[in-house]
Amino acid sequence: MAKNKFYFSHDGGARNDDKMIAVRMKHKAEGYAVYFMILEKMLESSDYILFKDYNVLAFDFRVGSDLVKSIVEDFGLFEFTDDNKSFYSKSFKSRMEPLENLRKQRREAGLKSAEKRAKSTKNQQNPTVVERSLTKNPTKESKVNNNTNVLLQKPTNTREENFEEENSQNQNSTFKNFQEEKEKSSAKKEKELESVKNFLVENGADYTDVSEWFRKRIEERKATTRYYAEKFILECKKNNISVREGVYACAFNGWVNFNPQWVINQKESNSKSSKNGSKEKQSDDPNDPKVGKENLSAYEKLRQQMARG
């Protein structure tokens, strides 16, 4: 489960709403489930608006893109932005107002707490000097007066110096511990990532392709875990796609996410082009001498350079 757990209200009789009845009549319980998965995705967005990319949503929900498109467009459940590139729900935004108020309160509380800590630190840094006025017989007691001031000031300064020194040592120690933990965490993540890459290679993928694909996924903050790799391999097997072919397609086409249907569509398109008398299909392997330099994609050129280097 995610660390940030937020909730939205779900009416007890939502399934009996007129629009929901229409959804269930056409798409049954699956359509009802997809609708609420869309709301969950909106909750994860900062502005409760989703980009109208039905293929990506379909891959996330493990359903067909036609079903997602129908839920969004056919039942009046969502509104669209002026450029028609994104969609949102007015009623859902209204229900999220308490959450927005909570977030605002937390931000304000955090700012007030920071200001309070800053003032407290500033007050601690200002030295306090206790002066005692001796008005009786100032001439005779001048030496006593001077000695008294020295005795009162010296311990105070000593305590402040000790505090500053101790505070500095604590800060240095804390920063050092933080750096060590950060380095350990980074090394652990690198080790885990390398393990997942090797796992895909063991199942037939090319290491260069895996590295390029995972680089894009990391940039987009997508999962690169062993669990995701296992799910990817399972999807490939279910659709008669080799792991090598699936990984290569993602790296070659710049796909961050993987949808087996995209690979199938691409293969069918290439097959049709070949039957219609197009140029002879060239090898995907950049090391194949039949591949002309002018026909190499940027990614294929990169693979060729890495293979030679």
Automatic annotation (TrEMBL):
Biased composition (Polar residues): 144-156
Descriptive protein name: DUF4373 domain-containing protein
Record InterPro entries: Lin1244/Lin1753-like_N (IPR025400)
Stretches with biased composition (Basic and acidic residues): 107-118, 178-191, 277-293
Region (Disordered): 107-191, 267-297
Transmembrane segments: none
Stretches with biased composition (Low complexity): 267-276
Superkingdom of this protein's organism: Bacteria
Lin1244/Lin1753-like N-terminal domain mapped to chain residues: 7-91
Pfam annotation, one family: Lin1244_N
